[in-house]
Structure formats: C-alpha cells, structure tokens
Amino acid sequence: MRVLTWIRCALIAMGIGSFPAVAGENAHPHPADAAQVHRDGIWKAAVPASGMHAEFDRFDAYGLAVGARIPADCSLNWINPDDGLRYCFASGTSLVYFLDAPNANIASARATWKTMLDEQR
C-alpha cells in the first residue's frame, strides 16, 4: 500500500492528476486513460545545445573509465559537487554505474582519456 501511495504522490507532483486513495475497482485508471495520460512518455531528456562544455569532449565518462570511447549528447549528465565539472553519459545505466564510485571512475576516465589523446598525436 505504501508503494501505491508513493506512486500516487509522484503522479500528482508531476501534474498528471490524482487517483482515488482507496484501493478497489476504481483505484487504477482504465488502460486507455493511462495511455492518454502518458502519450508523450514519462521520462524526457532534452538534448542540450552543442555549446555545452563537458569533460572529455562530451564522451561517456563511464565508458572512458572502462576503456571505451562512447559519444554522448549530454542529455544525461552529472556535475561533480566537489569541483563543478560536468560529465556526460550515453545511457542511464552508464550514469548509475559511474555514480557507484564517482571519484575512482573519474580518475580512471582521465587516465584513459590521456592515453587516447597521446595516441592521437
């Protein structure tokens, strides 16, 4: 029941509307109504302007941390509270894994990035 209350509160906060507080026949919207409410999707990401500055020339920071060069559009990004630097990610999964150990991943990504830049020269 707590999960339903949390979901109901989240939907109301998002401005989607309200649902009956009592579980029962009318507790859930009709599937057609739910489809109409969510016709544009729940999660949105806006691709930032190309001028946005981010570390590693807008490549996925976690990808670099594990040795891969993955382009990212920075629609998913994280700003390090310690130094204010922005890091971009190609997927939500990449961001979640990165945040498991951000300082270690930043150090690893920097080392990989330096190696890649040295190889280009």
Quick take:
It is globular and about 55 Å long. It has helices spanning 2-13, 31-37, 61-65, 92-100, 102-120, and strands at residues 76-79, 86-89. Helices cover 43% and strands 7% of the residues.
Short key terms for the protein model shown above:
2 strands; 121 residues; 43% helix; mainly alpha; two-stranded antiparallel sheet
Rg is: 20 Å
Percentage of residues in helical conformation: 40-55%
- Note the main sheet: 2 strands, antiparallel
Count up the domains: 2
The portion of residues forming beta strands comes to 5-15%
Structural class: mainly alpha
**Structural shape:** globular
- Strand/helix succession: HHHEEHH
Overall pLDDT level: 77
Structure characterization notes:
With 121 residues, the protein is mostly helical. Helix content is 43%, strand content 7%. The model is unreliable at 18-26 (pLDDT under 50).
Give the helices and strands, then pairings.
Elements: H1 2-13, H2 31-37, H3 61-65, E1 76-79, E2 86-89, H4 92-100, H5 102-120
